[in-house]
Amino acid sequence: MTYKHVIRSSQQPLSSIVFRTAARQAPALLVPAAQKHAHIIREYSSKPKSRFSPSGIYSSFVKKALATESWESVENFDQSQDSPDRSLADRVSSYGRALRESLAAPPGKDSLDFYLIKANLLKLLDALPQCHPNHTKRLKYSTYKSTLETSILLILKESESSSSFTISMDEIINIYTLLIRNGSADLKDSAIISKLFSVIQTCKDLSQERLFASSLEFLRFLDAQGKELEAEKLLQWILQVSPALTEASFNLALQHVSHPNIKYKCIPLLFETCRKQGNVPSQAALEFALMALKAGQLHSPLYQKVYSDFVTTNFINTPSQHSSVSALILILESFLESNDSKGAGKFLALFDSVIDVEGLHFKSPELKDQLYKLLIVAHLKFLGSKSMVESFLSKIGQDPEIDFYWSLHNEPQISNVVSIFETARSNGLEITDAVFNNAVDILLQNHTPTEIQNLLSTISVELGIDSTMEVYETLLNNALSKNDVELALSIFHTSLGQGALWTANNRETLDGLIVAMCETMQSEVVKVFRTYTSIRTFTKTVGYEATAALLKLFLSYDYVGDTEQLLEDELGLDSQNFDPQSKPKIYFPLYNYALASNNSENAWSAYTLSEKYFDSPYESYYTIMNHFCNLLRPDVALLIFKNMRNRSKTSGSKPPDEVIYRLLFHEFGKCGYAQGIFELHTFFKMDISVDATVPLLNEIMHAHYELEDVQQAVNIWTEIASFPTGPNHDSYNIMMKVCTKVSIEDVERMWQTLLQSPTVEPDDSNYRQYLIANCYHGFYLRALDIAKVMPVEPSKETIAALYNWTLIEHRKESVAKWALENHPEKWNALLAEPGALKTYLLDEKNPDNDSEAHLRKGLNEKLELDGRTIVPQVIV
């Protein structure tokens, strides 16, 4: 007994049932050439051979289409080309050659005949299906594709711009439909189908029925590109703008959404919309949908869930549809073949509560017998429901296979199972792989995987029945469901010892084993790795979840080299442009590892992997460049910046913006990275996408100040001064730093400039820099006097700066006394903050008899270094 076929001896094929009405009533998209294009040929023949001068865009199209073609003088369409003795292939070849030649004026001419191009185009498109019944082979030749694209774009462009040439919407729809049906897979990288669909969509005079049919055709194109989500969105739009679904339009839509790559999204959506409109799809339509969804359900948990949800939803909303015996048989067979215990359990629970099996209409005793046997096996295999099985058993006669399953279910002692197998054999039951797989599933209802594993060895030795791959997969999944990873691993190794050949169809199970090992055996990374390599000998690659789990494990041990090898094995050697959201468990661990690592080499290796395989979000660049600067690797940050620039030129991505420039100038200046500052400044001068602003120029000026390049800093100050708004507070602070390096007189001139500024009033930060400049040159008492009379309230940072930069002990004590008396809360807060107050003092003993200026210089450099590393500026 098998469960792979539905008896349909008394029924018509499903496709004829579902689409009989659709073929009769649906709006016609294609009309035979003899009817459709006769007027075009007549139109061409009767028109004077007026020529239209091609524009520049036409010339480029023609040049592209004829790039590899040489001119040959051939006749245009005539009766000899349509003669019956010419082969179809020769005829299509001649049509294609005629179309190519009509795209360029003959020798001695300088214009195109667009009516000839249109006639040749339609003739070729009509002939292609006759030449190649297999639609996937019709446009394999690049010359056909290039010529078709060029000719269509030419006539569309001419019809828009010229009143002397027209192409009707009927002709456009016919071209569009023929293109999709002849070669949507080969044209998936072309914009021509999308262009035609856009023209059709914008036609105001097009009926809703024709727009509906044309829009459905576009689903074929999306299927060829494997665009599930886009197809789902298009179908939603189609159903929103179209009238309520009739039986004919529903069947037409079902036909168009049943293509391999889009059906799992679109078929459930179509049925849901039909129900919301108060309609119930026909029984034949339901069975057609079940057959279409079944194809991917066997080996993919994702598709299993789609199938299970579809069955359950339709069962709840339209139970009457499931009164069909053929539909019930189809559903039960699908669940048994896929071994989807979760989906089958949900369906059987609903079935038992809703369906009266006795009340079903059976067309033959064979169908009745088949349904009851399927119900018995499904209940024993997925639910272990004894009472339901007993009621079903009373409805059928003796059957060796059913008796065998029932005996296994009722046997509490695992030691007696071998004798049950022997009895079944003696009763004439052939223990096929399918029977053996069902037997193991039934035994697992009452026995542990360990007991079953030991039983399999006994059966192999005593009965000569070897376990199938499905049996090992079932046992492994059962062990994983109980979180017994050690047992699951043991089952896997046992299967290898028995010569089991795992395949890519078992990838989900093997991926589950890898994920479970990565999560529970983190200290045994070598064992995990060996299991992974064993699995890859069978499957070549592992799935996304397994790859992500291995990556996480390897990175936890800082095995960045192994991570690189893992991604090369699973994602390929070549660079990719995956969306990070499509594989978040791979991209974000890589990026976060690079961001968290204090080892610059490991961080760089992980980051380059994320860039190699993913199209990183723009926001990630700022953070990662800042991190490498903090690791004292500004050269890496500069390299990332260069890659951003190059990428924006080649792919059109967003180039570095002002925020990125400000960050890098600030960080490069902080660590004195001269090469980076010079290169970055050169890039900025050539970058037309970033405007010069005062905040950005401030950072550039500060970077050159850090290099002690006074002349460059002064040049930038001059540029800032030319702005309508003029310098801001930060500009004056940076320039006072520059002047501080020169002389106190230059500081005073700059301070006077600030006081005279019409747009900037000195604030606390300006006074702080002014106090530091005075202390830098040894004017400690003057600095304290300025602090006492400054018109703005000194901040905690200003008080700390005055104290720290005062390098004579009694002057430092005076600052402390003033701060305590006038600003006690701020002073006490500084005392409580570790490292806030420095105790640097000039060496009064001066054993080397250095000048005071030289003594100050050494301490000033220490203070500058402290300020640079302890209180870094934040770019926002």
TrEMBL record:
Keywords from the named record: Repeat
Organism: Geotrichum candidum (Oospora lactis)
Entry-linked InterPro entries: TPR-like_helical_dom_sf (IPR011990)
Protein name: Mitochondrial group I intron splicing factor CCM1
Lineage per the UniProt record: Eukaryota, Fungi, Dikarya, Ascomycota, Saccharomycotina
Domain of life, per lineage: Eukaryota
